[in-house]
Amino acid sequence: MYTTDLSRVGKSGLEAPARVEPAALLEKFEARVAADDFIEPKDWMPEAYRRTLIRQISQHAHSEIVGMLPEGNWISRAPSLRRKAVLLAKVQDEAGHGLYLYCAAETLGASRDEMTEALLAGRAKYSTIFNYPTLTWADMGAIGWLVDGAAIMNQVPLQRTSYGPYARAMVRICKEESFHQRQGYEIMMAMCAGSPAQKRMAQDALDRWWAPALMMFGPPDENSPNTAQSIRWRIKRETNDELRQRFVDATVPQAQALGLTIPDPDLRWNEAKGGYDFGALDWEEFYAVVRGEGQVAKERMEARRKAWEDGAWVRDAAIAHSAKRAKAAEAA
Ligand SMILES: [Fe+2]
Ligand SMILES: [Fe+2]
User: Fold this and answer.
1) Which long-range contacts (CB under 8 A, 24 or more apart) does 186-189 make?
2) Residue 88 is inside which H or E element, if any?
């Protein structure tokens, strides 16, 4: 591993003498990160940094792709042509996000096949939120408002994450997530201004999605062992609890504007901290969903497996086509 690291340094053109101690490389790396420099694919990086990024970026990519399923399910049942077109555009954006992120992870040496196989074998995770079912049209509103809203809180700081390809992918993704959040909130506005039955559907969707959305930020900081290292390496810029607090503070007034009630009896404004206090979350449920026991986890993986198997002929055809072109170029 040591030699590999050094040979990478040689190839990257970093001005490293032939026999540099890794401590010196590490020190240089840490100094660059601390100075908010971007680390690029050919730069030397510690293996733990590379591995953490592959895990985080591929998990993020899987979440975008699996995240297409709950909403894709509603495209054919959207209540108007306008709603259908907007939802279709949103779901297509998520496919794009997945693709940018798989590409960013590939720059770290992970292949797309490896990442997909890890997902389908259950070794790689994706966001727990997508293992909850979407029961009514109001869920499309709640998902855009809360799930994409939480994604924005998570992703805005990642535009300044230390790994260049990841940070740059985030810039475009965040712009599109803002559109997603607004389309969801707009659905909620329409339903809350509609009939009493529609307003009840909106409240029911908020009741079901609120706690899972808060869990999207991950376990509390004291149970998040990798956070300190990730913050030092600027892979993460803020802790799970900081981001969760910011999300609650931003979202409560939005629920009030809709005339909806946040399903948390412990929620109250705390003047001293300038934010809301909120009730404890059911972390047992979170860990169960992480273990693959979510309500629709099996269906989600079956859908992904089927898509991967159905697409095999496309991958084979693309490989055969490029081999043909290479042969033709050789002959010319
Ligand atoms: Fe996305
Ligand atoms: Fe989104």
Assistant:
1) 186/141, 187/83, 187/137, 187/138, 187/140, 187/141, 187/144, 187/145, 188/138, 188/141, 188/142, 188/145, 188/258, 188/260, 189/258
2) helix 81-106
How many angstroms separate the CA atoms of 288 and 257, rounded? 34
Token pair, residue 22, equals: 């890794």
The one-letter code for the residue type at 264 is D
For residue 4, report the distance from its CA to the centre of ligand 2, in Å: 38
Task: Give every CB contact of residue 310 below 8 A, 6+ residues apart in sequence.
Answer: none
Task: Compute the average pLDDT of residues 53-66.
Answer: 95
- Whether the model clears a pTM of 0.90, i.e. scores above it, the answer is no
The DSSP-derived string for 258-301 is HT---S-TT-EEETTTTEEE-PPP-HHHHHHIIIIISTTHHHHH
Q: Which residues pair with 275 in a beta bridge?
A: 270
Measured in Å, residue 176 CA sits from the centre of ligand 2 at 7
Q: How far is the CA of 130 from the centre of ligand 1 (A)?
A: 12
Half-sphere exposure of 329 (CA within 13 A, CB side): 6
pLDDT tens-digit map of 37-51: 999 999 999 999 999
From the CA of 97, the nearest ligand is 1
